[in-house]
Amino acid sequence: MIYNTQREKMILPEYGRTIQEMVDICLQIEDRSERQICAETIIEIMRAMNPNVRQQPDYEHKLWDQLAILSDYKLDIDYPYEVIQREEMNAKPKPLKYPMQRIRYRHYGHLTEAFMKELKEMPDSPERTRLTEMIANYMKRSLYNWNRDAMDERKVAADIDNYTEGNVNLPEGMRFASVSNGHLPGSNASKKKRRK
Fold first, then answer.
1. Which of 35, 44, 51, 99 is spaced 20 to 30 A from 160 at the CA atom?
2. Which among 90, 121, 147 is the end of a domain?
3. pTM of the predicted model, to two decimals?
């Protein structure tokens, strides 16, 4: 009895050993036209194995790429598409450029600074008040995630004042959201939680 662990390792295990064996047989066919028919038949079987992914863009192209990979790029047929080359498959991706920016308070992140700039330039309005409350609650949650001992609502107020150079203050009587459940005071979710 031969176990799969004793057999040759499959190139694309998702297609199974049977498809791999079909490709190996196709490689041995000497007549080019018969080899072409065999390859197209294998593609039909591969397509039938995954009917739910037919809507994906370039699905047919991917199948022919996978056939080339299964044959270790040795299958000499007329591909209807330009198949991916071995060098492209093994190429390392280019490193992503990380946007290095100076962030005043790293635990709040870059977006909080961007919001503060916008908030500072907004005219005094109910929208500005609501946005200030939302940002303050986000800052409190960021402090909580960063260092629970450092979380203090007075620190959030001082940081907002520092960010906006004193142009924005927390609304009087503002109640911060509870960090444990994450709901804003007065929202339906926090009311439901209190009733239970």
1. 99
2. 90
3. 0.48
Count of CB atoms within 10 A of residue 109's CB? 14
Domain, as residue range, for 160: 110-195
**DSSP for residue 15:** G
pLDDT digits (tens, 9 = 90+) for 59-89: 888 899 989 999 989 988 999 988 888 888 7
Q: Could you write out the DSSP letters of every residue in 97-154?
A: PP-----SSTTT-HHHHHHHHHHHHSPSSHHHHHHHHHHHHHHHHHHHHH-GGG--HH
Are residues 127 and 185 both part of a single domain?
yes
- Residues 80, 124 share a domain: no
Contact between 30 and 2 under an 8 Å Cβ cutoff? The reply is no
